[in-house]
């Protein structure tokens, strides 16, 4: 049962809600309709204990939203028209957090979480981030992991949002000019200390450092960075957070090549990186029908590609020093 008595909310001299009185019996389905600014969201925010009223009170099964908010929260569920998610949490961590918020003991939460995920057919998402981002976890030292779509381009913009969630020193970024058998490619990578590097790899010549420099526009530690590579002819431009970092020319870089993601661990272990909003805006492009562990679900519209990467098993040892 919900009882609302003289509920009022003022901001200065403005009344967002003025002396609302309402009683709803148990089992009632009630629609709250009104014009913009009528006080609907204000009322729900007060009932959900997210906002304190200026005057009056409301009672959920006899519990006051003003003086017994913790008791009220045990009895309600609230889904606003807009809600944020803690996208740094994985699905099981997210459920564990809310279970703890509702006072469910830890052993019971551990029992309930897999049951709830199975109920809604999301067991396969248990260890994935709620923001829908793709992660690459490089577990071993002195190795790298890469992922690429079944998509080739010779001239393009390719970009991604990236965050080092582990805080462990490694480098991560974009692969481009990738030969299908991974025998050659370029990478644009950053690290948590603000340095960026352009590498060139070939099976015969190994790793070659084309450019390395510190930049203050690269966000450090575990903060989000937006990376982009622009390739036109022999020119390669790299960007971070909308800023051009450098432009280099490599006349040996010709033809079509795949694009994708890379995480390098150097001498560290457990370098975990999350990528989101990967896109390719090709100027000259081609599509293949290959299927590999490094492919993405690619959807094309007006020469614009966007997809979600599958977890790659690909891992190679490297020597860059």
Task: Tell me what you see in this structure.
There is one protein chain. The protein has 321 residues and is mostly beta strands. The protein has three domains: 72 residues, Rossmann fold (3-Layer(aba) Sandwich), CATH 3.40.50.300; 35 residues, no CATH class; 184 residues, Sandwich (Jelly Rolls), CATH 2.60.120. Helix content is 12%, strand content 43%. The chain contains four helices and 19 strands. The strands form two sheets. It has a 15-stranded antiparallel sheet that branches. Strands 2-1-3-4 form a four-stranded antiparallel sheet. Strand 3 and strand 4 form a beta hairpin. Helix 3 crosses helix 4. The chain starts with a strand and ends with a strand.
Jot down its keywords:
3 domains, Jelly Rolls, mainly beta, 12% helix, elongated, Rossmann fold, 15-stranded antiparallel beta sheet, 43% strand, 4 helices, 19 strands
Q: Quick summary of this structure?
A:
The protein is elongated. Residues 287-321 have low confidence and may be disordered.
């Amino acid at each position: 049962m919900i009882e609302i008595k003289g509920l009022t909310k003022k901001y200065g001299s403005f009344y967002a809600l003025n002396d609302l009185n309402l009683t709803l019996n148990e089992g009632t389905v009630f629609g709250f309709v009104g014009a913009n600014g009528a006080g609907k969201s204000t009322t729900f925010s007060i009932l959900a204990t997210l906002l304190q009223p200026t005057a009056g009170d409301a009672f959920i099964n006899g519990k006051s939203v003003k003086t017994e908010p913790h008791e009220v929260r045990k009895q309600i569920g609230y889904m606003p028209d807009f809600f944020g998610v803690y996208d740094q949490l994985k699905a099981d961590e997210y459920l564990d957090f809310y279970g703890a918020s509702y006072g469910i003991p830890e052993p019971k939460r551990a029992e309930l979480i897999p049951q709830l995920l199975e109920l809604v057919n999301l067991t396969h998402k248990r260890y994935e981030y709620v923001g829908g981002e793709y992660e690459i976890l490089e577990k071993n030292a002195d190795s790298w992991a890469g992922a690429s779509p079944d998509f080739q381009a010779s001239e393009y913009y390719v970009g991604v949002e990236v965050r080092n969630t582990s805080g462990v020193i490694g480098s991560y970024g974009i692969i481009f000019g990738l030969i299908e058998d991974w025998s050659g490619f370029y990478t644009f990578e950053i690290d948590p200390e603000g340095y960026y590097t352009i590498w060139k790899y070939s099976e015969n010549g190994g790793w070659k450092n084309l450019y390395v420099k510190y930049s203050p526009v690269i966000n450090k530690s575990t903060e989000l960075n937006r990376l982009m590579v622009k390739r036109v002819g022999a020119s390669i431009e790299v960007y971070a957070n909308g800023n051009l970092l450098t432009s280099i020319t490599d006349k040996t870089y010709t033809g079509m090549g795949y694009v994708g993601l890379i995480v390098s661990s150097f001498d560290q272990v457990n370098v975990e990186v999350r990528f989101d909003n990967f896109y390719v805006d090709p100027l000259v492009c081609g599509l293949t029908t290959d299927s590999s562990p490094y492919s993405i679900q690619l959807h094309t519209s007006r020469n614009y590609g966007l997809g979600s990467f599958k977890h790659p098993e690909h891992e190679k040892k490297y020597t860059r020093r």
